[in-house]
Write a structure and sequence with these properties.
Layout lengths: L3 E8 L4 E8 L4 E5 L5 H10 L3 E6 L11 H8 L3 E4 L3 H5 L19 E3 L4 E4 L2 E7 L8 E5 L4 E5 L2 E2 L2 E2 L9 H14 L5 E4 L5 E2 H7 L5
Parallel strand pairs: 3-4, 4-5, 5-6, 10-13
Antiparallel strand pairs: 1-2, 2-3, 7-8, 8-9, 9-10, 11-12, 13-14
Length: 210
């Protein structure tokens, strides 16, 4: 098993968690949800002596993508997202950047499917399609390290809003139920906002887990 470290920054107007997942043996690094302030993200990568290899998007809302293009261009790295999120990423009204005064129509380099597995930075990663917050929201699961990056699907004791374009309350219920009942209880969860949690905690206390 590769040795990893996970560091984070809280950036942007709604305090989004930006995660930096690094293989400490190779220094290769994955940026998850580059929320805003590319220069701060670049500084963190430098502090970690990171070699960026990709950006992973859990979904395409404005508060997770404002620094995306700058980071992609600076490091020449591909952007991964679920295939159902492509329409959200490309539409400023659906990704909500149209409301910020900085409308963005972006694209992903790699479109992923549910349960697809791939290797980045020497790490085995599995995609879990978890619609609800958006139609193409997904989580990234590292089964060997027992780590889940849950975006705005699963929060500590809560879950993401379901009143945005392409949101679905019913899909959110199904997605939360899937996560807490399919994943091992000792999986650590790194959400898109606020504090970290675990599958065991959410299985007991999340209002959509039952």
């Amino acid at each position: 098993m590769a040795k990893i470290q996970i560091q984070s920054l809280v950036l942007g107007m709604v305090s989004t968690n930006v995660f930096f997942l690094q293989n400490t043996d190779t220094k290769e690094l994955i940026v998850i949800d580059p929320a805003d302030r590319a220069e701060v993200i670049e500084r963190k990568i430098g502090e970690m002596e990171g070699v960026p290899v990709a950006v992973l998007l859990t979904h395409a809302h404005f508060d997770h993508i404002m620094a995306l293009q700058e980071i992609r261009t600076k490091y020449g790295i591909p952007v991964y997202a679920h295939e159902d999120e492509e329409a959200v990423l490309e539409d400023p009204m659906k990704n909500l950047t149209g409301m910020t005064g900085k409308p963005l129509a972006l694209h992903a380099d790699k479109l992923l499917r549910d349960k697809e597995e791939f290797v980045l930075a020497g790490l085995n990663i599995q995609v879990l399609h978890t619609p609800g917050h958006t139609q193409g929201s997904c989580c990234y699961y590292l089964p060997e390290e027992k780590v889940l990056f849950s975006g705005d699907t699963l929060f500590c004791g809560s879950y993401g809003r379901v009143d945005f374009p392409t949101s679905s309350a019913r899909s959110m219920e199904d997605s939360i139920f899937r996560l807490v009942h399919e994943l091992p209880e000792d999986v650590s969860v790194y959400p898109g906002h606020e504090m970290f949690t675990s599958i065991s905690f959410e299985k007991r206390y999340n209002p959509l887990a039952h």
